[in-house]
Write a structure and sequence with these properties.
23% of the residues lie in helices and 14% in strands. By secondary structure, it is α+β, with helices and mostly antiparallel strands.
């Protein structure tokens, strides 16, 4: 009985040991309200989405000088 439980536990851990399998999407499918289906083809891209940036994005979007100051007179 203990051997069967050990085997079952080991088999249950196999997906966690393998990790996620690679999936490749070729189209984005969305159901429509009227019962149809809209399909948008996508091309695989190796780069992350968005514009290319330098090695470090150290510049902040808001510096201290560009913020609106609170008018304490109000």
């Amino acid at each position: 009985m203990k051997a069967a439980l050990a085997l079952f536990g080991t088999l249950a851990m196999v997906p966690a040991m393998i990790g996620p399998l690679e999936a490749e999407a070729r189209a984005l499918a969305a159901p429509l309200c009227g019962g149809g289906m809209a399909s948008i083809p996508v091309q695989p891209v190796d780069a992350p989405p968005g514009p290319q940036q330098g090695p470090c994005c150290a510049k902040g979007c808001h510096t201290g000088s560009s913020r609106k100051r609170l008018d304490r007179a109000q």
